[in-house]
Amino acid sequence: MKTATSTALAFALAASLGACTTVPANDVPMASAISEAAALDALLQRSEADYLDRNPVAAFFRGDFSDADRLGDFSPASYVAERAAAQSDLAALRAIDRDALSATDRIVYDTFEYTMEQRIAGTDPDILPTVLAQPIDHFRGFHVFYPRLSAPDALMPFDTVADYEDNLSRHRDAAEGIDQMIARLRTGVSRGITLPRLTVELMIEQFDTQLQAPRDSNPYFAPLGAFPESFTTAQQAEQAAKLGQVVTGTLFPAMERMRDFLADEYLASARSTIAATANPGGEAYYQYRIADMTTLPLTADEIHETGLTEVARINAAIEEAEAARGNRRAPTYTTKQNLQEAWYEVAAEVDPLMDRLFLNQPETPLRIIPYEEYREKFNLAASYFPGKVDGTRPGTFYFSGYNVAERELGTSINLYMHEGNPGHHFQTMIAFENEDLPDFMRYGGFTAFSEGWGLYAESLGYELGLYDDPIDRLEALQGGELLRAVRLVVDTGMHAKGWSREQAIEYMVANGQPRDFAESETARYIVMPAQALAYKVGELKIKQLRARAEATLGDDFDVRRFHDQVLATGDVPLTVLEAKIDRWIANGGR
What we know:
Blueprint: H1 30-54, H2 56-60, H3 76-94, H4 103-122, H5 128-133, H6 142-145, H7 147-150, H8 161-190, H9 197-212, H10 233-266, H11 282-294, H12 300-325, H13 336-350, E1 366-370, H14 373-376, E2 382-385, E3 395-399, H15 404-407, H16 413-419, H17 424-433, H18 439-443, H19 447-463, H20 470-496, H21 501-510, H22 515-527, H23 534-553, H24 559-567, H25 574-586
Parallel strand pairs: 1-3
Antiparallel strand pairs: 2-3
Helix pairs in contact: 1-3, 3-4, 8-10, 9-10, 12-20, 16-19, 19-20, 19-23, 20-21, 21-22, 23-25
């Protein structure tokens, strides 16, 4: 899973806007194309500047730290501002003659239009009360993300005194944001819209873990162990005193207020139900989430049936692989160091094969490291965090080493191919490095595209011969394909078909997932309705488009060119991707 979320209130990445490069099409009059392209370019530049001013955190992920001293507004008013801006930008966009644009700029136009429409949809009066009432949860909450803005060697710079002062200012902003979130949670209770009890209990534990972490391993104090060599002894002492005062006097008290509010007030009102549809307005909210996460006009029933079909197909393949494997098992490891070395061995097996399938690869390197201790217990088996285009930070494949001595964790080729190469690292950094793209397409994201690509990337192991060993094939089938197919059934089951959590867990266990994993996964699906649908839906769409191209182009089909078409314009809605690939096929796959 790519590490990113969708709202500024959770300190997350949101689609951001930028300049547009114009390539006039042959069938567009040059003067008209230039005029309309200039209008599009001006709109994107203005919209981006305004968006980043409202949401400075979005700029951090592209290396823009001009507003590094603030985090933005976390109040309900921020949503009003986003809706008004999206409505204004959409009206300006539709004043531009799309037909006069080049083929490339039509993709930009369509992606920007979709982005604005979804922002408006997310602030619709039928949807907004639910969004506002759930500003935090155990998987996407600010407390999960914010420590990474607070420690060196993650995202933010800690090179100068000004950088350290910006960190202090962000802590003050975070404290204000926490109080705004408490107010939103309280308003949600008054409207009967609450989080499930299970996520509240997990959040209380998460806050306790951070607040009780020893100073030498607490991410909020990490800057004290990473002073630049340029700092004088006096500067170090001054910054240490200031950081200690702000963390213990401002940030931690706010976190304690949130923790105590959750435990002493909110928990009693938290709902025992699990479905998004259980809250007032929940049915409209879940349908919005399906559209937002899949970028396709699908219903819960359609997705559920697709899931059942896929589960049956994959289980049949698993039976064959199990028979071929016999009693052999994959190796496991009992130390983080040995596990890290094993992951690098996987990379050494996969990476040299990428030239067979790709014309272009990221210049940004990829590193493999374990999660930090403060978050490893609550995180996924592996995830990806983007690098910096300027080369100062590689892309990062994080793996979980939590309780490795007892759990005896192993590696898997398909997971590396999903999170690393050619999955999220390719999908993310090829876009980041493409300066010809408008910034909102370089740095923006659509879950169905990104996670669909990640799962599709796993499937490339078959044609590369990486799953010839049935041990590796089983990992790809059970931990990769089957899990994502099961998600289609379980997510729609819990949120649209009245399934209990225990029913969902039992279905997952019956389809190859360990019970403890099924328990943690269902907790994630409950608080992130429809997000788990994006993986399989996106993968199936990319596979469908590839099959269409192969059937139509025949000997003229080049898989490297197909992959270049999919990735070259960054994350786009699947509807936009389909139209793009269809045009590419019509042009002979060139």
